[in-house]
Amino acid sequence: MESSDWTEEFGAAITVCDTSGVVLGMNRAAGEVFAKDGGRAYIGKNILDCHPEPARSMLAGMLKEPRANTYTVEKRGVKKLIHQAPWYRDGRCAGFVELSIVLPKDMAHRVRPEVS
Predict the structure, then answer these.
(1) CA dist 82 to 28, 68, 70, 98, Å?
(2) For tag attachment on the chain, is the N or C end more exposed, with fewer CB atoms within 10 Å?
(3) Do 37 and 15 meet the contact criterion of CB atoms below 8 Å apart?
(4) Which long-range contacts (CB under 8 A, 24 or more apart) does 46-51 make?
């Protein structure tokens, strides 16, 4: 991703891959998240080679049958929301995007009333 791209300084890690699982781009935050494993050196590599089971099979299934996957994870006391979703070009699935968002320890949750 070019440094002029709005995603570069976005406050969450963004990683984009194609339908084969090859990483097409990572913003600065994603490069920092994966720094100990090479950071942006992941660009051009297959995400399936970077994940152990059962994550590898789940991601392979998402590439075969595009669907979103959302969950939270905690590692070293840091809780994150992970959202993986297909992206499209000309109406056809072109791969998926992963957003990794650090969640505050005391995150508010609001239920909004329905407006009719």
Answers:
(1) 17, 10, 6, 7
(2) C
(3) no
(4) 46/20, 46/21, 46/22, 47/15, 47/17, 47/21, 47/22, 47/23, 48/21
The whole-angstrom separation of Cα 65 and Cα 62 is 5
27 burial level (CB within 10 Å; 0-12, 13-18, 19+): buried
pLDDT in tens, 18-27: 999 999 999 9
d(CA 87, CA 93): 6
Which of 54, 88, 87 minimizes the C-alpha distance to 71? 54
Tell me the pTM: 0.87
For the chain, what percent of residues have pLDDT higher than 90? 76
How many CB atoms are closer than 10 A to CB 42? 21
Tokens of 6: 């709005």
**For the chain, how far is it from start to end, CA to CA, in angstroms?**
42
Pairing label, strands 13-18, 23-26: antiparallel
Instruction: For the chain, give every domain's residue range.
Output: 6-102
